[in-house]
Design goal:
This protein has 270 residues and is mainly alpha-helical. The chain has helices at 3-8, 46-49, 69-94, 113-119, 128-148, 152-155, 161-183, 193-209, 224-253. The protein has a domain at 77-253. Helix content is 51%, strand content 0%.
């Protein structure tokens, strides 16, 4: 190297150091990870998936959610009606038809069993649904026990329409709020779940209020099989109404995952 090169640095024939190559945009996973299954986030929409090879993400990583849309609505309605029918059949089999007792709430958590089988396909921690329904059932049962303790001079006999109507409303709120507390951790707009759950029970409550202080019609004369069938039919109708309303809401909620900061899912480039 000549003296001039030592003094002024490299010659023009030397190549300048290459600039660092720009890194490809990096996808940052948001707070919905672990709450909503990846297939619910529309990660594979054309606008987001442009430029990626078909083999970049395997089906095992992002399984197809099933069912969804109208299919989810249908199967949720079936699952809810079936769960309530089973719970009602258990009440008819193990609880005397002419008596009013909080023991019937022991079977209410069965209404969530088939619902959980569907929710586990969409939410990562769907097992909390079973616990929430059980807690809501306990709260409703305790309130009903307090309602039965009120004086007969005010609310009529234990099976009066007033007591039954109030119980219907509190049942809806207890279950709706307990399940909302679970949904709100994963999806946006979950507060709509409460009126969707209360509304069908409010219809039954309105029918009970029509009886006022009169006691419910005794069904002790029915055979055990007939009592089970009647209880299962009545609760299946209730479950059908609940399933229709909550299912219509659910098929929209699964498309609106919540991030840890309370917003919608976002994907940013770094």
């Amino acid at each position: 190297m000549t003296d001039s090169e030592r003094q002024f640095g490299t010659t023009g024939t030397e190549q300048a150091p290459a600039e660092p190559t720009a890194q490809a945009p990096r996808r940052e996973t948001s707070g919905w990870e672990g709450h909503v299954l990846p297939a619910n986030t529309r990660r594979d929409e054309p606008s987001e998936g442009a430029g990626r090879g078909a083999g970049d993400e395997s089906e095992e990583e992002h399984p197809e959610r099933t069912p969804s849309g109208a299919a989810l609505w249908f199967w949720w309605t079936v699952a809810t009606a079936l769960g309530w029918a089973i719970a009602g059949a258990c009440v008819g089999a193990f609880v005397a038809g002419e008596s009013a007792t909080p023991l019937q709430y022991v079977f209410v958590p069965l209404t969530a069993l088939f619902q959980w089988l569907l929710l586990r396909r969409h939410f990562a921690r769907a097992s909390w649904w079973l616990l929430a329904t059980a807690v809501g059932s306990v709260v409703a049962g305790l309130f009903y026990a307090g309602l039965l303790a009120l004086p007969e001079a005010t609310f009529g006999p234990p099976t009066s329409g007033l007591r039954s109507g109030i119980s219907d409303l509190t049942d809806g709120f207890a279950l709706g709020v307990a399940q909302w507390l679970i949904l709100r951790r994963s999806v946006r707009g979950a507060e709509r779940w409460i009126p969707a759950t209360v509304s069908p029970l409010a219809i039954f409550g309105w029918l009970d209020f029509q009886r006022g202080r009169e006691a419910a019609e005794a069904i002790g004369f029915l055979t055990p099989g007939a009592r089970v069938a009647l209880a299962a039919t009545n609760t299946a109708i209730l479950g059908l109404l609940i399933g229709v309303l909550t299912g219509a809401l659910l098929m929209r909620l699964v498309e609106e995952p919540r991030t840890e900061d309370g917003g919608q899912r976002t994907e940013t480039a770094a």
